[in-house]
Amino acid sequence: MSAFPNSTSKPVPDRHCLKNYNTFGVNVLARHFELINNIDTLRQLIISRTLDTEDFCILGEGSNTIFRTDYKGFVLKNDMKGIQVVQENEDSVWVEAQGGENWHEFVQHCIRNGWGGIENLSLIPGSVGAAPVQNIGAYGVELKDVFESLIAVNMRSGRVERFSLSACRFGYRDSIFKNRLQGRYFIVSVILKLNKAHKHEFELSYGAVKERLEAKGQKPSLQSVSDVICEIRRDKLPDPRVLGNCGSFFKNVVLTKSKFEKLHKRFPEMPNYALSENQIKIPTAWLIEQCGEWKGRRFGNIGIYHKHALIIVNHGGGTGREVSWLSEKIIESVYDKFGIEIEREVNII
Ligand SMILES: Cc1cc2nc3c(=O)[nH]c(=O)nc-3n(C[C@H](O)[C@H](O)[C@H](O)COP(=O)(O)OP(=O)(O)OC[C@H]3O[C@@H](n4cnc5c(N)ncnc54)[C@H](O)[C@@H]3O)c2cc1C
C-alpha cells in the first residue's frame, strides 16, 4: 500500500504535447501542462488566481477525452497516488484511492486483498478520479453500486469538499460532474465500500461471464471473474496501445416505455433491456448497424472498428476535428432512420 504523497508538483515546459496523454492519440499541444500530485499545488494555482485568466481542463488518463485542436489553456493532469483502508468491520472495508491511481491497477489491488465489488469493472481504462465522472460501468456493475463518497477541490474557492452518493447524482454514464458541476471540481480521491469475501455475491448474469467460467471449469472467485472479464474485453475491444480509441463513443439509448413501444412497432426486432418499469435501454451499436455500412468503414485516418459499431478508431494521424465530423454523421444517420438523437459518451474538448 503506498503512502499519500506530499511532494510538490513538477511544472512541465509550456506547449506540452498531449499525444501520449489521450488514448485516441490525437497529436495536439497544450499551452500549459501541470502534473498535480497534491492538493496544496492545486489550491495554490486556484488561490493565486493563475487559472482565472485562461481556460483549464482536468485530465486523468485521457481515455474518454478527445481534443479537437491545440488547447489554449492549462491542462491539469491528475497524478495523485495512494490507496488506504479508512474503515473496516466484519463484513466490509472502506477503501480510499487517490484520483491519479490507475483504475485497473486499483481493481487488482482490491482483488489481491480479497475485497469484492469492482471485479466486473476490470480493465476499464483510465484513472480512479475520472471513474465517478461518468459512473463507469460494465458487466452489470456500476461504480455507484459500491460508492461511499469522494473528496474534491472546488476550482473556484479552493475549498476541499466531500460528496456523498446522493450528492453525485449518478445515472447511466452520468453524474453531476458531467453536467451542472462540469469542470467545477477536481476529484482528489474516491472512497468505496467493498465486501469481504464471505459477504460477497458475484454478478455473473451479463455478457457470457458465467458461461466462460463454466467452460473453463472454474468457480467464481474475485480473480477468476476478473480474468474472464479481461479476456472477453480483450476479444471485443481494440487495445488503445495498438489502435487509438476511446471505447464506446456513444451512450446506449434509454427510452420511456411509451416511446419504446411506438418504435418497437416499427422495428420489432430491436433488442431491448428493461432498466426499470418505465425505462428501456436500446443498444446504440444495433441502431448504428441498422443504418447501413458504418461498421468497419474507414474515412481517411479514422474509422469505425470492424468488430464494434460504437467504437471510433484512429488508424494513425486522426484528428479531433475528423472524429467530431464522423460522430456527427453517425448521429444524423441514426436520427434519420429512428428519430432518436444518440448522445456522445466521449468528452470532446
Ligand atoms: C478501450 C476502452 C474501453 C472502455 N470501456 C469502458 C467501459 O466498459 N465502461 C465505462 O464506463 N467506460 C469505458 N471506457 C471509457 C473510460 O475508460 C472511462 O470513462 C474512464 O473513467 C476515463 O478515465 P480517464 O482517467 O481516462 O478520464 P479522462 O478521459 O482523462 O477524463 C474524462 C472526463 O473526466 C474528467 N475528469 C478526469 N479526471 C477528473 C478528476 N480527477 N476530477 C474531475 N474531473 C475529472 C475530465 O475532465 C473529462 O471530462 C473505455 C475506454 C476505452 C479506451
Write a structural description.
The chain is an alpha+beta fold and 349 residues long. The chain folds into three domains: 16-78, 2-Layer Sandwich (Uridine Diphospho-n-acetylenolpyruvylglucosamine Reductase, domain 2); 83-236, Uridine Diphospho-n-acetylenolpyruvylglucosamine Reductase, domain 3 (2-Layer Sandwich); 244-348, Uridine Diphospho-n-acetylenolpyruvylglucosamine Reductase, domain 1 (Alpha-Beta Complex), CATH 3.90.78.10. It is built from seven helices and 21 strands. Residues 1-8 have low confidence and may be disordered. The structure holds flavin-adenine dinucleotide (FAD). The site of flavin-adenine dinucleotide (FAD) has 34 residues, from β3, β9, β13 and β14.
Question: Could you name the key traits of this structure?
Answer:
349 residues, alpha+beta, Uridine Diphospho-n-acetylenolpyruvylglucosamine Reductase, domain 3, Uridine Diphospho-n-acetylenolpyruvylglucosamine Reductase, domain 1, 22% helix, globular, disordered N terminus, binds flavin-adenine dinucleotide
